[in-house]
# Entry
Amino acid sequence: MQNKQGLLMFDQLGDFTIPLWHPVVVHFPIALSMIAVLAAGIWLGRNKLRWWRTALFLEIGALLGAVAALRTGEAMEEQSEGVAMVDQFVEWHETMGERAAWALGLSVIVLVVLRWVGLRETAHAGVRFRWRLIAFVFVLLAAVLVGLTGHIGGIMTWGVPV
# Structure
C-alpha cells in the first residue's frame, strides 16, 4: 500500500512548479563560499595544489551562484512589493548581493594571480605563505559578504519585529 501511495505522490509532482527560483538558487553561493573558506584555509596550512584548485573551483561556483541569485532576485523583488519586511530591507539586500558577487569575482582573480606570482618565485617550493594568506583573506571576506547578504535575506523572509 505504501509503495502505491508513494507512486501516486510522485505522479503529483508534475502538477506543481516553482515560480520563483531565487529561494532555491541563493543557497549555492552561501554553501560554496563557506566551503571555499575551508579549502583555502587548508591550502594556507598545507600548500598543496589540490586545495588551491578546490578553493578556486568552489569560489567560481559561488560566483556563478551569486550571479544567478542576483538575476532571480529581481523577479522575487517584484512579486514581494508591498510586504513591509521586504520593502524595508530589499535595497540593502540587493546592494550587499552585488558587493558579495564582486568580492567573489575578485577573490577568484586573487587566487589565480597570487598562485601565479607565487609559482614564479622559483627559490621557494610551492606558493609562499604570505601569498596564500592574502588569498585566504580575500576568500574569507567574500564569504562574510555572502553570509551577511544571506542574513539580510533571512530577515526579509523569516524575521519578525521584536
Residues 24-158 form one domain. Helices lie at 2-12, 22-25, 27-46, 49-79, 84-120, 129-158.
